[in-house]
Every structure is written in structure tokens, then in C-alpha cells.
Amino acid sequence: MTKAKAKTGTADIAVNRKARHDYHLEERFEAGLVLEGWEVKALRAGRCNLSEAYITLKGGEAWLFGCRIEPLGTASTHISPDPLRLRKLLLNRRELGRIFGGVQKEGATCVPLSLYWSKGRAKLEIALAKGKQKFDKRATEKERDWNRQKQRLMRRN
Description:
This protein has helices at about 15-20, 35-45, 95-105, 135-155; strands spanning about 10-15, 25-35, 50, 55-60, 60-65, 70, 85-90, 110-120, 120-130. It contains four helices and nine strands. Helix content is about 30%, strand content about 35%. The strands form two sheets. A seven-stranded antiparallel beta sheet has the order 1-8-9-2-7-5-4. A two-stranded antiparallel sheet has the order 3-6. It is globular. With about 160 residues, the protein is α+β, with helices and mostly antiparallel strands.
């Protein structure tokens, strides 16, 4: 018997749709996460929420706050897990320097976009972003509606 090979590529665990709505995304980075065993099992079960998460920079390191990873009942019986524990992001010095510079000099914000699997490891896509104003959000929504309407018209013809 042969086992079916796992498909290559990325598999999303959680996506922060709110970030794409609230910010202009400029530069993206891929960061690793320092996780505990119960967190990995919970991520495999898809029990993660990034909507309230944000990234803080302190002591020359990047930390993920507010990412809720709900523990599995069976995987965490002998410990008391904290679903909102802060998690260290693994980035190289050049990337950390670029993020620190963007946040301090340019006034950008560092936001988490998506959490996914890459080669068996959990990765977090983060971005330097600038906040959108209310009129920017409306303009984006109008453009999206116009593109949908345009596609409908093209299909009719």
C-alpha cells in the first residue's frame, strides 16, 4: 500500500480579513512562531482567531499579542494553557530592522495577516501597514462593487 502524498504549498489556518479592510498594506514579511505542543495541536484542529491580534516591538524582538488559540480538551489535560499568551515571532535581524524603522520613522503599524502551514511549520504573514480613512474604505468598496458589476456585464455578452 502507498500513502497519498500531502499536497505541497500552504494551508491557511486563520486569516485576518479585518486587517485588509482597515489598512493599506505595504511591505509583507513571513515570520515563524515560538509555540508550545498544545498550541500546535490546536492549530492543526483549526482553533485559532487572528481578528483581535496585533504585533508589538520591544527589546529588539517582535511579539504577537491577542492571538487566541483555543486548547483542545484532550491535548492539554496535564497543564493549564493560556489561550491569549504572548508569542515570540522569529525574524532575522534585517527584517526586524526594517519593521522597527517602518514603525518608528514612517508611522506605520505592524499587523498580522494570516497564519498558515509551510513545510510542516506554522508561519505568520505580517505586514507594515498604514491606516485607512473612512473615505478610503468607501472608495475601496465602490471599486469592488464596480468590478463585480463589470464581470456580470461581460458574462452576459
